[in-house]
Amino acid sequence: MSRPTLADVAARAGVSAKTVSNVLLGRRHVAEATRARVLEAVTEVGYTVNAAGRGLASGRTGRVAVVVPMIYQPYFAEVAERLILALAEHGLTTTLRIAHDDAAERDAVLGLTTPDVDGVILCPHGLSPEVLGDGIVPRPVVQLGGGIMPSFDCVIMGETEGFRSMTEHLLATGRKRIALIGTGPGGAPQGSRFAGYLEALTAHGIDLDERLLITGSDWDRRASGYEAVVGLLRTGVEFDAVMCFNDAMAVGALRGLRSHGLRVPQDVALTGFDDTAEVEFTSPPLSSVSPEQAQMVAATVRMLIERIDGYAGEPRVVRTGAHLVPRESSAPAESAG
Amino acid sequence: MSRPTLADVAARAGVSAKTVSNVLLGRRHVAEATRARVLEAVTEVGYTVNAAGRGLASGRTGRVAVVVPMIYQPYFAEVAERLILALAEHGLTTTLRIAHDDAAERDAVLGLTTPDVDGVILCPHGLSPEVLGDGIVPRPVVQLGGGIMPSFDCVIMGETEGFRSMTEHLLATGRKRIALIGTGPGGAPQGSRFAGYLEALTAHGIDLDERLLITGSDWDRRASGYEAVVGLLRTGVEFDAVMCFNDAMAVGALRGLRSHGLRVPQDVALTGFDDTAEVEFTSPPLSSVSPEQAQMVAATVRMLIERIDGYAGEPRVVRTGAHLVPRESSAPAESAG
DNA sequence: ACGCTGAATGGCAACGTTAACAATTGGTCC
DNA sequence: GGACCAATTGTTAACGTTGCCATTCAGCGT
């Protein structure tokens, strides 16, 4: 016995297939008695809608592509999981795409590698307007995290705000020479996160010491944080705190500091960004900044669904907050055991 | 201009739609010249196959559901990522399903929550034959990890083997009282992993001390390992090594040991299982057992594709190996700094 | 020369659903 | 009472692809 169709349900309920369809789609003008009878027939025969048929007739697939550079990094895994669950609540299924590089992200956005979805959620690795070029974006796209893109809706994290408050937190707890490990095209950390760091220093009348700016080889690898901190130690520059652009680098940096005999937080304070689950269980637990993932995901899904439903206004930008999550790794040096 | 169809390609190439379809499906009996002309037309008009149409006509969706209990735990994230990439190589797209509990896993296997896929890959949390009941499995299912299920193909990790060699490794490096943190229905660790531990002890003529067996509250949370080790310390039982059922618990256990002033590996050796990326960057890095993920994933995908292609033999069991990955956390007590 | 074989291609129907519209019913308004 | 409206249900024709089968044609053996 093969999978039941609308016709089977219709026969059972004594109505036409179209009426069953109307009930399932929640159309108005269906008598209450009919609706009840149809729903009963649906469960009796065990009907589930055939996505291929529906897709062909309606032009909608009910599917959304979530594009991430990788999922083995906790930040992306957590975001992807939240997105999948949020989309499921709206009846949308998810196909997860792993886009390792800029070109793969571009192809996903342009629809070359993501046909047959109603929309795309992009968690970018490093996609920039230049890489995207002037290709037509053929389908709703919402970007979660990363910089502002002119072609589609973007949800921007409170990076500057988060780094400003983290920097102030470190200054307030007695740290004076704060190294920054991040990424940037020019060999030194740049962008919104760097901006927050700089704002806080300026506000406290501290000059920027460029010897404290270290570039990790790769935004997303723990090894990158390890290498960066080892490089910093090798220069012999004095420092009493290390801020990392994200948690993954901070975990690597922690290992680097410890393997050189430095204690966290007694000798050096250490902080991350993203507030992923992994930094709660390092030794010591790492201070981080929570980018309000729940807010970001909610805004992303809301905007995507609006676009799928036909909204065609100008690209929008939503900025979410960020709050400090202080833990043991940034406790004042003197008070720590 | 809407998305091009087979008819558009056909018009461009001067053939029928059916011939274009034949070329795209790699059918025999297509002249080389025709094939070339069709492929050229495909790129010229930018054609991509419409999955809904193909699905409706062929009965295949080209999609596979990967069911995991969560993805924010590195083990599942890593496996899911490998599966997605391996399936993509075979032209299959993936929908990721998060199944939090046994009932959700059962529903995914039975197809209730995974219609419109050609097959299901299940990475189980704790699905057992009893939970599955005698429901008919309506579509190919392959299980990766977990125990043997009578209803579908299973890939079984070398759990016993891995725990046996890890236990022997610890004994060989001078540890005498090895605690085991895991899960089991009876309040003590059980199953294949426990069996490996026991085999090694028996082989060395060591009696099992049940006070060294601790059950974590939850297989997959780091907090569970933390709580377990704290509970163990509270009992006052002597131990010089802790083996955990997986890396997540080991990370939590490490935190628990450190926060009670115990040094790893000088005072206590500590080990995990799964060899996830996270244990390379703890302090110290944790010894673990690699379950040969690449092998497991390859076998899983191969068996699923065979099933999708119509193979209908009895459920099969593939056992993959496991090898020890010793790191600093299990170095001999006297030699460690 | 004839039928036969196999290669190459195309015609037609079907997959399960929904959009657009038609039809029927029952009631309301003047 | 008749025209009109709203509510409800049904009819027909797509949507884009592939399966099945028919057709054409060239080359071959006899």
UniProtKB/TrEMBL annotation, chains A, B:
Occurrences of domain HTH lacI-type (ranges): 4-58
Organism from which the protein derives: Occultella glacieicola
Keywords annotated in UniProt: DNA-binding, Transcription, Transcription regulation
InterPro entries: HTH_LacI, LacI/GalR-like_sensor, Lambda_DNA-bd_dom_sf, Peripla_BP_I
Name used for this protein in its record: LacI family transcriptional regulator
CDD domains found in the cross-reference section: HTH_LacI, PBP1_LacI_sugar_binding-like
Name of a matching Pfam family: LacI
